[in-house]
Amino acid sequence: MVSSLGYSSGSLLVRLVTGPFVRRRVLGAGNIPLKGPCILAPNHISHFDPPLIGLSMRRPVDWMAMRELFANPASAAIFRWVGAFPVGRESFDMPAVRTAITRLKQGRLVGVFPEGGLRTGPQSVLEGAPLKPGVAALSQMTGAPVLPCVILGSDALYDPRQWLPFRRTRVWVVFGALLAPPAPGGDKAAARVEFENLLGRTLRNLYESTLRDEHVPAGCLPQTPQRRKGKD
Asked: In this structure, are residues 145 and 178 in contact, taking their beta carbons and an 8 Å threshold?
């Protein structure tokens, strides 16, 4: 059950835990719509992305989260309390799609990772990999615009040393301009493919402009969790 109290409580807890260790820089916050249905579509480099992006938003996010997080009844209750809902990544998950459509029709903001999981290097959209299908269809079916988002630096938190006092890991959360949904008429499949290509280009452009304008250090570029932990 979605709870505004649950989301507020969760956000406060994340802020208290990460505040001493993370220095967030949020860009493009003015692109976030304050009301109405919207699909948030970020790249995905670490398990820290949802809470850090959520803290950077101006409204609650109902995250579409991997089903494994709901395996334990206690954790499932917590995730549902803050608005998240499960999705299976192995195949098309119709119940998850129905939930997303329902939330969007209620005027909520739904967070979906269009890469389908953690991605770095050549497998990442930031380096040219194609997106998984889904966001375009969801936008087309509901008429909800899509908010592109790029997060950088969060994967550094896999390194235990970043949780030492005074380290303050640098994290960038960048929001692009809203993308209008694919055309609902005509060749719908072609419109979805065109939209997915547009979203991919938009995320890469946001990434490249952030690297250039923010002078992001090489050590803050996306790396695998294994490399961050010194195991690769």
From this structure: yes
Q: What is the pTM of this model?
A: 0.92
Residue pair 178/37 in contact by the 8 Å Cβ criterion:
no
Q: How far apart are CA 222 and CA 197, in angstroms?
A: 22
Q: What one-character-per-residue DSSP string does the chain give?
A: ---HHHHHHHHHHHHHHHTTTEEEEEE-GGGS-SSS-EEEEE----TTHHHHHHHH-SS--EEEEEGGGGSSHHHHHHHHHTT-EEE-SSS--HHHHHHHHHHHHTT-EEE--TTSS---GGGSGGGTPPPPTTHHHHHHHH---EEEEEEESGGGGGSGGGGSTT--EEEEEEE---BPPPPSSS-HHHHHHHHHHHHHHHHHHHHHHHHHHHT--GGGS---HHHHTT--
Give the Cα separation of 40 and 226 in Å (integer): 27
Read off the pLDDT of residues 152-169 as tens digits, 9 standing for 90 and up: 999 999 999 999 988 899
pLDDT in tens, 138-156: 999 999 999 999 999 999 9
Cα separation, 137 vs 199, in Å, equals 13
